[in-house]
Amino acid sequence: MDLAVLWFWIVGALFIGYFILDGFDFGVGISLPFLGKKDSERRVLINTIGPVWDLNETWVIVAGACLFAAFPEWYATLFAGFYLPLFLILIALILRGVSFEYRHQRKHESWKRAFDTMIFVGSVVPALLWGVAFANVVRGVPLNEKFDYVGGFWNLLNPYALLGGITTLLLFFLSGLYFILLKTDGELHARAQKLAVKVGIITIVVAASFLVWTIIMSEFKLATIVCSAIAAVALIGAVALNYLRKEGLSFAAVAVTVAAAVLTLFVTLFPNVMPSTIDPATNSLTIENASSSAYTLEFMTWVAVIALPLILLYQGWTYWVFRKRITHATIEAAAH
Amino acid sequence: MNEILDPLILSRWQFGLTTVYHFLFVPLTIGLATTVAIFQTAWYRTGKVHYLQLTQFFGKIFMINFAMGVVTGIVQEFQFGMNWSTYSRFVGDVFGAPLALEGLLAFFFEATFIGVWIFGWNKLSPKLHLASIWCVAFATALSAYFIIAANAFMQNPVGYQINAEKGRAELTSIGDLLTNPVALAAFPHTIAACFMVSAGLIVAVAAYHLSRNQHLDTMRPALKFGLWTMLGAGAATMFFGDQLSLAMVATQPMKMAAAEALYNTATGADASFSIFTFGTPDGQHELFSIRVPYLLSLLSTHSFDGTVEGIRELQAAYSTKFGPGTYSPTIWITYWAFRWMIGLGLYHMLVAAVGLFVTRKGRSPKRWVWRVAIWSFPASLLAMSVGWVFTEMGRQPWIVFGLLKTEDAVSPELTGVQVLISLIGFTIVYGALAVVEFGLIKKAAVAGPAPVETADDGSDTPVPTATVY
């Protein structure tokens, strides 16, 4: 296989990893005002992702760096073109990241409240805007003959992209709720279960509309239909399994949903990486015209082939180390 | 063009601001990771309680600091594409590789084991838990290597060829890229400086408590450790800084000329180094200066009769080679940044040496001595920042030396309003977080090490407390 094509799928896999992992982090953050009635409950919620949010967020740094190295043109067009949404995502990620570390450093109620709000906003904004950004990439954006984005900010807020954003927001919220179900117990757990049922049904409706729209836009491309179908079945399965209180399986199924949904976008895109709405034949970025040289790709392939299995191994081990549920007792036994 | 809304100028301000800010946290992360690992190793091997207290105490400061390093680091990676897309298209084939290596080999490792270390106190065996902080320390240094190798390409491009058809630089040798002589000197220089910063923090905190006669059992060894680290790291920073200036003279002679504001080529005794200069506002004529003869020759060539090229000669040579244009950086910035960097570095070694002398055999110095020690921490951060300002401003007008100018590298369709929005946004958020961050680190530092809890079984075995958010 052509190495550039291989890297298209590696970049896709890294974004899938990012959206599965940071997706449930975002979901936990979004759930704070809905589930955390008391401070101790909000602490339990935050501690469910305490040891892993940083490594989950690192996936986007690695995905971005690999995009830069393997497809400099794609990286340049995407990041310069989507300047303001990415700026908002950055501010959100900054506020969210420091809040985890800062909120427990002082006992004042107003101090904690401020950081709870920042965690919530810092989770909603990227969960929404990543969907908007990726939907726009698939839909196509106006690029000039130098592959520079010329559409302005408001052009990015079209109905299809906004639906994509709401889809990722809901999907991440749902996967966060399923993660909370795996990691908590008692009253909080019961509340999360109730909310998960409701959010599950809304997510099915919204995600299905987005996938159908994507299928139509792809002019009924077979791969798009297949991946969309997998995403839809997995999502319905996840909601059903959650209803049957199969916590592990429902979380696994929602992870499959996220993976299949992101894959839907990548297979729809293929072999383009950023189709242009102006002169698509000449102005579109493709795997071929956006990729790095054969030498760079070959070297990078060696690194990725060796490193990625090890990365999955030690990150998996971390989740195993912190597999226990977080309870009020865990929080109170600690020093802070 | 309206200068206030020039995307180039605004983007440069934004990159400078966010990068200097990011690098206030990075040196502490790098330096403290190893420091904490050393304290924890000492506890593991000796079982002495004060080592555990020091581990957890500086571990807490490390944790407050590291989150800022992580989140401000994402901005750095995104900005290359957001504000400098022409640069990204031009160098991505070369420059992207070390960034991807950093991510795949270092960042994942660091982020994973930081979580394991913070939350794993009572979940892992002591040996495995100790190993996790060493993993973090190793990964921070490794990531510094890749990013410095990427930066070194901008200072001294190697291992590439120009693909005229695609209009970009393409990697031809990853080995050459990663063994760039500038990187080989800049890496140990930077790492040693990181240890100066972390030692500065330790000395400042220990001085604060010792001047109040409190936490003596932990802070006395901490002070000693901090002062020796400061002295050793200072010497190493100077040694590798000297190596780096040799590499700089060989690859970017204009930067050395700008560092000394040397307008005309000079040899031997004339290649003097000015400690202080007061010149005309345009910086071209000096009115008063204190000069050390031969020193610039020594710094640049390691000999007394070396020749150091001047700005005018280099400007003429570059104009012939690259076409008309200005090829010198802003001289007053490079001149003063270079002096502040060296001056503060020497100041630290002096503080460390004097500190070791006045506290020998448990002596306690006067109060103002402790004050000086406390200020060595902000001074070390300042030294680090002016060092980076020097090396990056000294590279101008180039973004990649000899290949691409900064003015040609900015994203073509970016508007001034967009950059103004993000610049204001970053300034407000970074400013507010700096206040919070400083307050939290100060609070943790002033509180001092917490007493260690002992096991429930009635024995005196110390038990590390678990961390939760």
TrEMBL record, chain A:
Broad class of the protein's primary localization: membrane
Subcellular location: Cell membrane
Entry annotated with the keyword Electron transport: yes
Annotated GO MF terms: electron transfer activity; metal ion binding; oxidoreductase activity, acting on diphenols and related substances as donors, oxygen as acceptor
Keywords linked to the UniProt accession: Cell membrane, Electron transport, Heme, Iron, Membrane, Metal-binding, Transmembrane, Transmembrane helix, Transport
InterPro entries in the record: Cyt-d_oxidase_su2
Membrane topology (UniProt): Multi-pass membrane protein
Domain of life assignment: Bacteria
Any one of the GO BP annotations: aerobic electron transport chain
Membrane-spanning ranges: 6-32, 77-98, 119-141, 161-183, 195-216, 222-244, 251-270, 299-322
Cellular component aspect of the GO annotation: cytochrome complex; plasma membrane
Entry-linked NCBIfam families: cydB
UniProt record similarity statement: Belongs to the cytochrome ubiquinol oxidase subunit 2 family.
Protein name per its UniProtKB record: Cytochrome d ubiquinol oxidase subunit II
Species: Mycetocola tolaasinivorans
Lineage start: Bacteria, Bacillati, Actinomycetota, Actinomycetes, Micrococcales
From TrEMBL, chain B:
Gene Ontology MF annotations: electron transfer activity; heme binding; metal ion binding; oxidoreductase activity, acting on diphenols and related substances as donors, oxygen as acceptor
Entry GO CC: cytochrome complex; plasma membrane
Localisation: Cell membrane
Protein keywords: Cell membrane, Electron transport, Heme, Iron, Membrane, Metal-binding, Transmembrane, Transmembrane helix, Transport
Disordered: region residues: 450-469
UniProt GO BP: aerobic electron transport chain
Origin superkingdom: Bacteria
Alphabetized Pfam families for the sequence: Cyt_bd_oxida_I
Transmembrane segments: 20-45, 57-75, 95-119, 131-154, 186-210, 222-241, 337-358, 370-390, 419-441
InterPro entries: Cyt-d_ubiquinol_oxidase_su_1
Bilayer topology term: Multi-pass membrane protein
Family: Belongs to the cytochrome ubiquinol oxidase subunit 1 family.
PANTHER family: CYTOCHROME BD UBIQUINOL OXIDASE SUBUNIT 1, CYTOCHROME D UBIQUINOL OXIDASE
UniProt name for this protein: Cytochrome ubiquinol oxidase subunit I
Organism in which the protein naturally occurs: Mycetocola tolaasinivorans
High-level lineage: Bacteria, Bacillati, Actinomycetota, Actinomycetes, Micrococcales
